Amino acid sequence: MPLSYVPILIGLAKSLAKDPKALAEVKLDRTAAAYKTKYGLAEGFHQKLMTKLRQNSFSINLDEATSSNRKKVLTMLVSFYDDEVGQVKIEHLASVEIKKTDSDTVFKEVVKVIEGNEIPWKNLVSVLMDSCGVMRGNKNGVETRLRLEKAPHLLDVDGDSCHHMHKCSKKLCEPFTRYLESLFNDVRADFQYCSEYAEMLAQICAVIGVTYCKPARFIPHRWLSAYDLSVQTTMLLDAYVLFYYSFMKNEDRQTYKEVVDQILSGRGVHKEGQRKLKDIQERIAAKKMT
Predict the structure, then answer these.
(1) Mean pLDDT across the chain
(2) For residues 253 and 278, what is the distance between their CA atoms, to the nearest angstrom?
(3) pLDDT of residue 9
(4) Mind telling me which InterPro entries this protein's record contains (predicted)?
């Protein structure tokens, strides 16, 4: 939940409180909430996690990504069995900015986090990461160095299953020559760079009773992205047909008029709705398709 919701939650708590005077003087804005979270609650959560890791076996999940401000960030998650709740928990251990993503840099950062927090290496049972050479190379990969220099008992759990699934699905889809992926990218481009198109698509959705959502971006390195966008495109398909129908020439419209009529009939669009739709399509037709 974003910290911008904090003032709203405080107001809600005041309105629901049985004793209004008890919370009357309570004030907490977004900035104060961020400060208290970072320098108050976060430290308590961190120390509690360190205690758990010093006493229990755990696994580390490593991954590097580029942040929104174009900085390379190495994130470490830990998975361990928590006796207090009786289940396996996944917690955030650390996120550190790195200049390079070579194996030596990643290895040193992992060692710094583990040893800097006085976590015994004997408690680390496995490391989960993608299967690239930096992470799992046979000679100088991060996992190889951890096993040779710090934790010889590490289990070999292979690479991240999600990356394996991505490679398999990518290979499976090669014969289809990126037909769907190209469609997803083209549709998104139409509405990403023209707010008027997005607004008129939303209006069409309102007329035919479809929940509007902004066409999402296809992410090539995420194997579920194609599925997610297929679901979204199927949901918006009738709205897309009515939108792109507006750009057709009159002779082409006659060919696909039956398809449009079937959509309107199937969606139960009444005469007033059809009138609104015609007005929207005329405004769309006045634009030039890029």
Answers:
(1) 86
(2) 13
(3) 82
(4) RNaseH-like_sf (IPR012337)
- Can you read off the two tokens belonging to residue 125? 């049972």
Name the pTM for this structure. Answer: 0.55
**Distance, CA of 30 to chain centre:** 23
Question: What is the 3-class SS of the chain, one letter each residue?
Answer: CCHHHHHHHHHHHHHHCCCHHHHCCCCCCHHHHHHHHHHHHHHHHHHHHHHHHHHCCEEEEEEEEECCCCCEEEEEEEEEEECCCCEEEEEEEEEEECCCCCHHHHHHHHHHHHHHCCCCHHHEEEEECCCCHHHHCCCCCHHHHHHHHCCCCCECCCCCHHHHHHHHHHHHHHHHCCHHHHHHHHHHHHHHCCHHHHHHHHHHHHHHCCCCCCCCCCCCCCCCHHHHHHHHHHHHHHHHHHHHHCCCCHHHHHHHHHHHHHHHHHCCCCHHHHHHHHHHHHHHHCCCCC
Q: Which long-range contacts (CB under 8 A, 24 or more apart) does 11-19 make?
A: none
Residue 43 has pLDDT above 90, yes or no: no
Q: What's the average model confidence in pLDDT over 8-19?
A: 81
Largest CA distance in the chain: 75
Is the pLDDT score of 287 beyond 90?
Answer: no
> What pLDDT, on a 0 to 100 scale, did the predictor assign at position 113?
93
